[in-house]
Structure formats: structure tokens, C-alpha cells
What we know:
The chain has 189 residues and is of the alpha+beta class. The chain has one domain (2-175): Gcn5-related N-acetyltransferase (GNAT) (Aminopeptidase, 3-Layer(aba) Sandwich), CATH 3.40.630.30. 32% of the residues lie in helices and 28% in strands. It has helices at 9-13, 37-54, 64-76, 129-143, 158-167, and strands at residues 2-7, 28-31, 81-88, 91-102, 111-120, 149-154, 170-175. Helix 2 packs across helix 3 (64-76).
Amino acid sequence: MGITMHADKEILNHVAPSPHKEPPKEIxxxxxxxxxxxxxxxxGQELYHYIDTIDPVWRTSPHAGDNLRAHLxxxxxxxxxxTYVACAPQAIIGFITGTIILRPPVILPLRxxxxxNAFVTSSWRDKGIGTRLAHMMLAxxxxxxxxxxxxxxxxxxxxAVAFWERIGFRSWTMQAHLWLYPEKTKxxx
Length: 189
């Protein structure tokens, strides 16, 4: 089961530095470059592996790394998407990707932001890095004139639930899951 979290214009207009930990001084933050894509795909695979371990419904494709690399390569050329990265002195240690989505003309606003992926490697968590990345992404959405931002994550990911609620997101919709063939195991798929 997944939850869609939502931040509206009021939250976006009040995005401020977090009262929580400031990232270590050796960590730098920047917009992505095309040569980051392979590293981001590897980090994405770490994220998907983590979700595999906590969510019995999630099934990572055997080609997830290649598919994510292709997806990021496509997004890199689009004006409606951006990725920010967090860098330790020798490596990228976290990232966040956001996209502006056009909605059907029956739902307002007609476009909103979607945080596609957000991840910080385990040894760098709880140091303010994810918070800084989230605030950078929300500021970018605000600069693009976006009024609402969404993110999807698994309810079994209690760290994500607490993190995004701390940022200001609130539950908006819920997705439910039903196995039509329960006899199939995760490995068989």
C-alpha cells in the first residue's frame, strides 16, 4: 500500500531552513550534471533494494538500474524536471528528483510538482542532508510557479513517513494493493 503526500501553496510559501541539523560542512549541494546519471542510477538501485527489504508488495525490476538511467537521461533534457545532488568530498551521497506534471483539465491546479525519488546513503542519514535536498526541491518548484507538490512512498517505510511529515507534507490519497494471483511469490515474478 502506498500513500500520496501533498504540500500545498501555503507550505511552499513558507519553506524555510530546517530547525534540525545542518549538514556537515564538507557536504556540497548542486544541480545535477549529465555525467552524474550513472551514479544516480546506482543510488536509485540502493533505494529500491532498501524498499524491497521493508515492503512485501514492492518488486524491483531486474533491469531497474538501466531503466532508471534511461529515465534520468530523458529527464535531463527536459525543462520541467531537475535533480539536486549532495556530494561528499569524493562521492555523490544523495539526490532528489522532481518533475512538473500536467494534470487532467478537470483537476486544479492544472500542474503540480512530483518528487520522483529522494535518497541519501545510509552512512550519511540523519545529518540534515535529506532535509536540505527537500528544501532545495521545494524552492525550485516554487520558482517554477508550482502551487502543490506530491510524493509517493510505501507506508511500510516509516522513516519516509516521519521525514516527509516533518517537511510539511500531509496524507492526501492512499493506494491499495491486491494480489490477483497470491500463489505467485515475489521471486516468481
